[in-house]
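Sample entry follows:

_____
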Amino acid sequence: MLDHGAAPPVVESTTPKTSALGALTRRKPVERLVMEGGQGEGGSLRRSLSMWQLTMISIGATLGTGIFVVLGDAVPQAGPAVTLAFVIAGLTALFSALSYAELAGTIPVAGSSYSYAYATMGELVAWVCGWCLVLEYGVSVAAVAVGWGEYVNELLDGTIGVTIPDALSSAPGEGGIINLPALIVVLLAMVFLLGGAKESARANTIMVVVKIAALVLFCTIGFMGFKSGNYSDFMPLGMAGVSAAGASLFFSYIGFDAASTAGEEAKNPQRDLPRAIMLSLIIVTALYVLVAAVAVGAWNWKDFEGSEASLAAIMNDVSGQAFWGTLLAAGAVISIASVVLTVLYGQTRVLFAMSRDGLVPKVFGKVSPKTGTPRVNTVIVSVFCGVLAAAIPLGELVDATSIGTLFAFALVNIAVVILRKTRPDMKRTFRVPLGWLFPVLGFGFCVYNMLSLGATTWTVFGCWMAAGLVFYFLYGMRRSRLATAAPAESAASTEK
């Protein structure tokens, strides 16, 4: 929904507050967020990304390991109705995507949900949200990089008959010395990012096209083995099975918010960010449903349980030739590499925004005048994620990325409601339809999915949040730009 009406903005005071309560609740007005957008230590980010490139960033971050391995877990829960489960999961993600679209068009800055929370709920909530994003992006980069190494071995085995030794492809806690492939893919992504946002976006677009082509190839081969009888009992485990599968499949949609971290590098963010977020979600959902429908048509749903039900295995079985499975493994290698690239990009941009606000060290906000990218930030984050992937068995820690993401999604839905209440006349290039209904539903679905996660995940999340709060109270609260700004700067900002 387009909203062409605009009224003079009501600007909140940015006068620094010295009380503890004031430090926790101080907000940064939308106008100030946008005014400071792109500015970092030593330079500014460059606006070079088109709507198509923004869409590819979202697809690149979302369409990855999930669809290549998820069917073996989801089909036994829902049967042939796994296609319906994908639609339900997509609708669940849609509610939050609508909220992201509205805020991305209204507050087009690099911090994504962190910045949205800063403008609506105050600095402490913004810090918690940003800390969740650090967990989401950082750990997921490492986890996806580990998965990349497994597909590289599968590809090498299918082409030249050799694999990387376990000592060089597994973390120390898993019987190896170092997971070298995981480290390599993170460092390759770092090289692309250091070249500039436009250059890395081009590389990502090529990789996204390849991964979509790989899935289309699967559908083409798989359709040759399609048996309509596999759909004779569409919902054998009832709606409860479909709901259970839908809840687990929701996590296959995590990543669509990556485009919102490019708010300060988009050519026309108010117009293009909402479109990119919605278009990417539609494309990903269509691909998921199509692939699931073909997979279940080619294999009876009962054959999925306890079997190696990857897309490559299905292609090999239908075609009778290992070549097609190997080709799909090559597509998976490229697919996962694009996830590493785009998620790593999002991580650096969130830290860039937090550094500009003074909540993390200034080094994360330094921009190279040559490439227009936060180079030191990119190197630090890449090395950290690479070492994490290469040396530490992640295990159940990976689930912590899901809870961190859901928490951030929930805050974005709340932020839409708050901004509608406090700034009803603000110009919005996109509005979530039906008032507060969809944001409230989005918040509810996020909470539901969070509660479905295990006790270990909640323990990890609690420890991470505790560490973040300690860091904030010892460092961020006192060094925040809102806390240290000169009175003259605050007065000037208020007058605007």
About this structure: The chain has a mean pLDDT of 81.
